[in-house]
Amino acid sequence: MKVGMALGGGVARGLAHIGVMQILEEHGVVPQCLAGTSAGSIMGAALASGLSSHELQHLAEKAEWWFLARPVPFGRGMLSSEGIEKWVLKMLPVAAFEDLEHPLAVVAADFASGAEVVLREGDLAHAVRASCTIPGVYEPVERDGRHLIDGGVVRNLPVTTVRELGADFVVAVDLHSDALQGEIPKHPIGSLLRTANIMMRPSEEAELRQADVAIQPRLGHMSPLAFRDTAEFVRLGREAAVKVLPDLLGRLADAR
Question: What string of DSSP letters covers 104-152?
């Protein structure tokens, strides 16, 4: 039986994936294939490359997050996502999808047509960058003649995508189960992200129905821009994983 993981997007909330994976690793649950969107694509790439969740937490805690905010002059976004690509390239032990230890699918969207674009070959860091390119905030990323933006526009929780990789049992990590219960943001980018959460939620809930087990960290009180709060996001991810662990292990045992 092939276990797959679907890792949702959520900007800084994606750091909660680390805590989830720590609990799963501690109990011997290792995915054989992964799919990630936006922040989930970063975590998916790291895990598929062989990095442990504890190594990933160390990298996140020492990161200088200013690489996320390089402005561009008169572009189709306020910022360039090039810094994301450079950071991912530096972080990962491999450079291409073909060198990963486990199959990985990275979800992006075609800015011209709105079509979903699933990336599985070639330059890994560049694919992750495309998946993280929030429209309006970042300039679209050109790849193979297309202009790509954040995959959350089309499939923020890629359960269907990891099924297409051959997963028989899918664990989905949903970062937005209570995202609309927090305070209304006052910062323009925070307002943009909350608007995106409202628009993405129906699609996320549809994807959740296709998963075998859903892990849903309670992150509604955490800002999606709180990149310095790695330890708290990790704690909340661990807490959510522990909550569903008996059910997860029982279902896995039954499926095998």
Answer: EEEEEEETTT--EEEE-SSBHHHHHHHHT--BEEE--EEETTEEEEEGG
**What single letter denotes the amino acid at residue 32?**
Q
| 70 vs 200: which has the higher pLDDT | 200
Residue tagged active-site, from 41, 81, 150, 212: 150
**Packing angle of the helix pair 82-91, 39-48 (nearest 10 deg):** 20
Residues 197-243: tens digit of each pLDDT = 888 899 999 999 999 999 999 998 898 889 999 999 999 999 999 99
State the Cα–Cα distance between residues 168 and 142, nearest whole angstrom: 33
Closest by CA to 222, choosing from 19, 7, 29, is 19
How large is the average pLDDT for residues 12-28? 97
Q: Which pLDDT score is estimated for 72?
A: 52
Catalytic member of 38, 49, 53, 177: 38
Q: Dump the DSSP string for 46-93.
A: HHHTT--HHHHHHHHHH--GGGG-EE-SSSSEEEE-HHHHHHHHHH-S
List the Cα angle 48/130/224 in 5-degree steps.
Answer: 85
Residue 203, phi then psi, degrees to nearest 5: -65, -40
Whether 191 is a known active-site residue: answer: no
178 is catalytic: no
End-to-end CA distance of the chain: 7
> Taking phi first (over 0 means left), then psi (-120 to 50 degrees means alpha), and beta for anything else, what does residue 144 get?
left
Q: What is the DSSP string of 140-207?
A: -EEETTEEEEEGGGT-SS-HHHHHHTT-SEEEEE-S-TTGGGSPPP-SHHHHHHHHHHHHHHHHHHHH
